[in-house]
Amino acid sequence: MIFCILGPTCSGKSAVAEELSNYLNAKIVNFDAFQVYKELEIGTAKPTKEELESGKYYFYNIRHIDEIYDVSQYQKEVRSFLDEHINENIIMVGGTGLYLKATLFDYRFEEEKPMPLDFLSDKTNEELFEELNIIDPLDASKIGVNNRKRLLRALYIFKEHKQSKTDITNNLKDNLLYKNVVFLALNPDRDSLYNSINKRVDIMFKNGLEDEVHNLYSFYDSNLRSLQAIGYKEFNNSDLSSEEIKELIKKNTRNYAKRQMTFFKHQFKDVKWFESGEEAIKYVKTNY
């Protein structure tokens, strides 16, 4: 069976996956878009080094941050993995709902030509942002005015497919490609979730997040797509103090949690919701 653990960041998904993996003798498959990168450690809140070395975790640390990796590649690789282990228990856990949706459901990516190097090169970031804000205000709000690469990418997708990224996401077909899939979702109360988010960010700073990011910035372009993860992109602002960056990460993470919940609730059906990880674990142990 395939057990999918959904929920916002900091809701306890990883702990549920670890316990259920032991109970079900199941492999754990990541569907977080940034935990695939080897160099992103503290800011992505990956499982521990010991857990990752246990041999049951898959699709973590599979790319370097300067390598191109997207949902279509993930879909192809994980579908191959699921097909190979179809008779085993699999637990899929992560926060990038699009990766999970595109993999398990009948969604086919249209081929597109590489984006020309001079695509919209005559436009300023502000002009690109305004153009995208008309086409796809939701994606524009996620990207912001300063990330030129992602603005160009979103506008190029619209040019090639005649649909915005948000429309493409919303049009994912609802036909499951796999049998025996169980969707479990964690939905802790907002105050508890926000407290967990704030504490996690404090711990990340205590564990050396600033040093990790500054070290990466010294070797890699800070505008890499992989470095647009929350917890990394906020450091790309020399006008902010360390404390201001920390508070901005907390704010961005809380906002991201809201968007995750909206996606999971709108894009997945037949989901069993739980207020805590303990309830989800009890449900599985009682029924499977």
Report on this model:
The protein is α/β, with parallel strands linked by helices and 288 residues long. The protein has two domains: 2-107 and 172-287, 3-Layer(aba) Sandwich (Rossmann fold); 125-168, no CATH class. It is built from twelve helices and six strands. A six-stranded parallel beta sheet has the order 3-2-4-1-5-6.
Task: Give a quick summary of the entry.
It contains twelve helices and six strands. The chain has 288 residues and is α/β, with parallel strands linked by helices.
Strand content: 5-15%
Helical content, roughly? 40-55%
Poorly predicted regions: none
Q: Calculate the mean pLDDT score and round it.
A: 92
Please list the strands of the largest sheet in the order they lie side by side: 3-2-4-1-5-6
Largest sheet geometry: 6 strands, parallel
Task: Assign the CATH topology of the largest domain.
Answer: Rossmann fold
Question: Structural class, judged by helices and strands?
Answer: alpha/beta
Using brief descriptors, characterize the structure shown.
6-stranded parallel sheet, 9% strand, alpha/beta, 12 helices, 288 residues, Rossmann fold, single chain
Strand and helix layout:
Blueprint: E1 2-6, H1 13-24, E2 27-30, H2 49-52, E3 57-58, H3 71-84, E4 90-93, H4 97-104, H5 125-135, H6 137-143, H7 148-161, H8 165-170, E5 181-186, H9 190-206, H10 209-219, H11 242-267, E6 271-274, H12 277-287
Parallel strand pairs: 1-4, 1-5, 2-3, 2-4, 5-6
Helix pairs in contact: 1-12, 3-4, 5-6, 5-7, 9-11
